[in-house]
Design a protein that fits this description.
The chain has 13 helices and no strands. It is an all-alpha fold.
Length: 301
């Protein structure tokens, strides 16, 4: 007598997309670690991030083109949105990487992840995408958590210190990333995720290379650690991290998806603590709990 079959509950598409969103955010959380370990300039690090992600993105796009349900070829409006996304992401990468030279990884990551403020407000005022009460509540909770994480700096705690210039660069990166999220959300209505990631990454690479040359940065890594760092930045943080986020944006609205982007801040804090000894304070721990609660609210909303 054969054993009875055990019914297996299939994973719902909504949960799968949320898992992809959270996994992508986790991989992005290590970008600051890779940049800090690298020995190239901020914009140059962004250029190498795009370069080493290209083989994965080309393979992803080729796989999508074979799918029977792939979308129609790009139109002018869709291409413009993707190009804008690439430009905005280039500014975000250069500013965020630059902030790491003036402030801690925790401060740079947390201020850089205030993008939900710009996304929700921009989506509401420009695109007419009115957020739900739950999303607004999660946004407030995420912002409160981020404030708790950076508050020790203002109290004079050396472990959380960072100057105003570095924090300003990180905030500028957050607003640039908000523009990127809005542009990708619009582009995903007309193009597959792989193609959006590929074209926007090409635009970003060109922008970062010209910026690195204009700023006379160190472009070529000078050590094995430097090469491994930029390779990890491209494969882990961008190809996997940004790619999974772009995939999930096809199912989640830009406002809800951007809220989950506070997750990399917590990942960065923990990684910086383990690798560089940037120990979080009790207030930062409470902020991390608030961020986790905001992520759970987005999942339910």
């Amino acid at each position: 007598m054969s054993a009875p079959a055990i019914p297996v509950r299939p994973v719902s598409p909504a949960f799968a997309m949320f898992a992809a969103l959270l996994a992508g955010a986790t991989f992005i959380g290590f970008s600051g670690i890779f940049v800090r370990l690298g020995d190239v300039g901020p914009a140059a690090a962004g250029f190498w991030r795009m370069v080493f992600a290209m083989p994965v993105l080309f393979a992803w796009t080729a796989f999508e083109r074979r799918a029977p349900a792939r979308r129609s070829p790009l139109r002018g409006g869709a291409f413009a949105a993707i190009a804008l996304a690439g430009l905005a992401f280039g500014v975000d990468v250069a500013l965020y990487n630059g902030s790491l030279g003036y402030t801690t990884i925790a401060n740079a990551s947390l201020l850089g992840n205030l993008a939900p403020v710009g996304v929700v407000l921009g989506g509401w005022l420009i695109l007419g995408d009115r957020p739900s009460r739950r999303i607004l509540g999660a946004l407030m909770l995420a912002i409160a958590g981020a404030l708790l994480l950076v508050l020790p700096k203002f109290a004079g705690n050396p472990a959380a210190s960072g100057n105003l210039f570095g924090d300003s660069l990180a905030f500028g990166a957050a607003m640039s990333y908000a523009a990127y999220i809005l542009a990708v959300g619009r582009a995903r209505h007309h193009a597959d995720a792989g193609l959006v990631s590929l074209i926007s990454s090409l635009v970003c690479a060109v922008f970062c290379l010209f910026a690195a040359l204009a700023l006379r940065e160190q472009i070529l890594p000078a050590s094995l650690q430097g090469w491994l760092a930029v390779i990890g930045l491209g494969l882990v943080s961008h190809a996997l991290g940004q790619g999974l986020i772009t995939l999930a944006l096809g199912s989640y609205g830009a406002g809800a998806a951007s809220l989950v982007m506070v997750w990399p801040a917590l990942v960065s804090v923990l990684a910086a603590w383990a690798i560089f000894g940037e120990q979080p304070t009790p207030l930062q721990a409470f902020g991390g709990v608030a961020i986790l609660a905001a992520v759970l609210m987005v999942r339910r909303g």
